[in-house]
Amino acid sequence: QKEPEAEAGRLEQLSVKKLRVVLFALCSSTEQAAEHFRSPPRRIQRWLRRFQALQDEPPAPSEGKYLSLEAEEKLAEWVLTQREQQLPVNEETLFQKATKIGRSLEGGFKISYEWAVRFMLRHHLSTHTRRGVSHPLPKEIQGNAGAFIEFVQRQIHAQELPPAMIAAVDEISLFLDAEILGSDDRKENALQTVGNGEPWCDLVLTVLADGSVLPALVISRGRPPAAAALPACVLLESKESGYGDDEIMELWAARVWRKHTECQRGSKGMLVLDCHRTHLSEEVLAVLSAAGTLPAVIPAGCSSRIQPLDVCIKRSVKNFLQKKWKERARELADSGCDSAALLQLLLGWLGEALEVIRDSPDLVRRSFLVASVLPGPDGDAGSPRRNGDVQEELIAALEEQLKLGKNRDSPGKFPRNDDATGDPEILHRLFEGESETESFYGFEEADLELMEI
């Protein structure tokens, strides 16, 4: 059906209201934007396609002063590092950060939703993409990523590291919102994978370049399930007072990595991990050193391209756990299920996901190739386009095996960002009727001063 706005072959600019919905979808997912704004997902996707068709047109002169390319790249780096740490990237945080960067511009900086959507698309920051490895990173961190890949591949070759001793480790933090859980609606949104507070639990995942999956370590802050029956591939550490970031990696080093290396007869190894949190305490370094394991620390902002777990495994595990939660959320909440009982269910769901991944060693091996941690069969990393093709294939294959359904509106979706900007009543007050202006600041200067980023 032809778009009424596209009369006589001419595409009209999207209104502010529509741009705001599209921005939300790019920051999180079409599915969550549809829920937030009570708008059908297909309509949101149509708006996004229409905007992409306008991408080649330069912004109108009346739109004001925008960030330089260098400043935009700094903002893109910020988005990538926020996501690596599972911190919120949404309209509010994006506009605040952009305004801070833009204050240095002579004559000021004018934020608009059109600029924000253009920015997200121009820098390939949509969470929808299944081909992230095919897109370049911002210039400065692209150089860091290249140096990291060169270092890792050189060490693997020089030290003749066996695939069974080349590992990638990363964490998924899960946040359980007790207030939402106890409310009358939206219980399915109580489990989230983005948050600013203390996580309910952390899942530490480890995969090997030979296709193996090591046991996942679950770190729980709270009362453990009574006589928990754990899946074979899951280890649990639980303490009422919780654990510090350094303690988490120390537990992982002792319970997962040391046990694995003891079976490898003294082979040297390499551990690929990101630079966030306190991964490398003295205790962790001591375990790695004793096991002859070299830590390879991914530069900030680069994980989405060169962390094998980020290529397809983590996003699919997150989506699987959220799908399972949404299927059971209302029933669990209505039955007064406590945190320990919920943790028991989570352990079972994680076990299901890990069994699927363990039965797919080729997918795990290819994740290391696509992330360029391992050189390809011809000795070189694959081309970005080829790697993008393979990444898309791997994500589709794993989602099919996990029964995540075809064409979920946003394959790499993040949980909803439950901030005031998404409240339907506030949106109604801000946008009564169709606004004619394509620029909207949305924040008072005093509000911007409150949040240091």
Automatic annotation (TrEMBL):
Segments forming domain HTH CENPB-type: 59-129
PROSITE patterns, per database record: HTH_CENPB (PS51253)
UniProt keyword list: DNA-binding
Protein name: POGZ protein
Keyword Chaperone: no
Pfam families reported in the protein's UniProt record: DDE_1, HTH_Tnp_Tc5
Gene (name only): Pogz
DNA-binding keyword on record: yes
Secretion signal span: none
A GO molecular function held by the record: DNA binding
SMART domains found in the cross-reference section: CENPB
GO terms for cellular component: nucleus
